[in-house]
Design a protein that fits this description.
Structural class: mainly alpha
Strand content: under 5%
Helix content: over 70%
Radius of gyration: 19 Å
Largest sheet: none
Number of strands: 0
Distance between the termini: 71 Å
Length: 195
C-alpha cells in the first residue's frame, strides 16, 4: 500500500515553526502554538517532524542553511570582502521584516536560552555560529591576500571578532535604532582597514 500523500508544504511549515521558536524561544513555544502556526494536526506533525525537539533541530538546520547561503552569496557578489561585510551587517540594522529588528539573531537567542539548560541544543547553536566564523575566515583570508584587509590582526582573530560583533548586534538592535546601529557597524568594521 502506498504511503499517504503529504498535503502540506514542508518548507512553509518549517518557516512557520521558525517564527514561533524565534519569537517565543524553545521552552515557551507550546505544541499548540506550533501546530496552529504550521496549520497541521498532531498526526501530520509527529509523522513528518517527530517530537518538538526534533522539529526544533530541523528548524535550526534549515535556518542556518539559508543564512549560510545568504552570507556566502553576499561575499560572492563583492570583490572587496569589506564591502560584503558592511552589507551583511547593514542587513542586521535594516532587516527586511521590521519585526526581525527586535527579535535578535535566532542562533544567538537559542545559545543564550539553552546554555546551562540543554547542552545538546546549545552545542548545535554554538556550532552553527562557529560555521559562520569559518565562512568569515575564508573570505577574510582572501581579503588579506588581495590587499583589501590591511590590519595586522590575524584572520582567525578577525573572524572571531566578527562573530562577537554579530552576537553583540543581536542584542544592540533591541536597544538602538537603525542610524545608531549603522554608526556602530562602521566603527567596528574600521578594524579591518586601520587608517
Amino acid at each position: 500500500m502506498a504511503g499517504r500523500y503529504k498535503e502540506f508544504d514542508e518548507g512553509k511549515a518549517l518557516a512557520a515553526a521558525t517564527e514561533v521558536f524565534w519569537t517565543k524561544g524553545y521552552e515557551a513555544a507550546s505544541m499548540e502554538d506550533l501546530l496552529q502556526a504550521m496549520d497541521l494536526n498532531k498526526g501530520s506533525m509527529y509523522n513528518t517532524f517527530g517530537s518538538k525537539r526534533q522539529l526544533f533541530i530541523s528548524v535550526l538546520n534549515r535556518f542556518f542553511l539559508k543564512e549560510g547561503m545568504a552570507i556566502r552569496s553576499t561575499f560572492e557578489q563583492h570583490k572587496n570582502p569589506v564591502k560584503a561585510l558592511k552589507e551583511i551587517f547593514r542587513q542586521v540594522t535594516q532587516p527586511a521584516d521590521i519585526n526581525d529588528h527586535s527579535k535578535g539573531c535566532f542562533l544567538v537567542n537559542t545559545l543564550g536560552e539553552m546554555s546551562g539548560m540543554d547542552e545538546e541544543l546549545a552545542s548545535l547553536a554554538r556550532n552553527k555560529l562557529l560555521d559562520v566564523e569559518t565562512i568569515y575566515l575564508q573570505y577574510i583570508k582572501k581579503g588579506v591576500k588581495e590587499g583589501y584587509i590591511t590590519t595586522r590582526t590575524s584572520p582567525e582573530t578577525l573572524a572571531k571578532f566578527l562573530v562577537n560583533m554579530w552576537n553583540g548586534m543581536s542584542i544592540s538592535r533591541r536597544i538602538y535604532g537603525r542610524k545608531e546601529l549603522e554608526k556602530l557597524v562602521e566603527l567596528q568594521l574600521d578594524v579591518l582597514q586601520p587608517g
